[in-house]
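Working notes for the structural subgroup meeting. M.R. asked for a predicted model of this chain before we commit to crystallization trials. I am recording the input and output together here so anyone reviewing the notebook later can reproduce the run.

Input as submitted:
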Amino acid sequence: MFKLSEIKELIKLVDQTSVHELEIENEGMRLAIRKPGRTEIVNVQTAPLSHTYLPAAPSAHLAPAAAQASHLETKAAAPDNSHLHRIVSPMVGTFYRSPSPDASSFVNIGDKVSDKTVVCILEAMKLMNPLEAEVKGEIVEILVENGQLVEFGQPLFLVKPE
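Returned structure, recorded in token form:
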């Protein structure tokens, strides 16, 4: 069984290195950590014992100082969104823009929403949870991709309030 402190340490190590993916199987439990821009625990399940280490994509092999400078430049160039309302995830789950794969999205950039407008569905533990805008305004930006795992408190949409 993995201890929380061990998992936190592994996440920190993956985050600070050029390793893109780490899978560890120990005592019948499997832990997979992947870094697609940020580190997240993807899966913990029963499996046979083995270890897999995959290097990061070539573009991720920046020197730490260069990576930090690049991150700072991106932050400095980002527009000021302080006047915009953020619709954030109330739970950890999978973000879906539409009620089914073949249906149109609940909202798109430029759409007007009211406080009761459903903007997405968050799937958690096989339950589909509709998320309402809770503000009247216009969708300015959608911050996550369809099917993406989102964290508690993670911003999903930016809304220009009316």
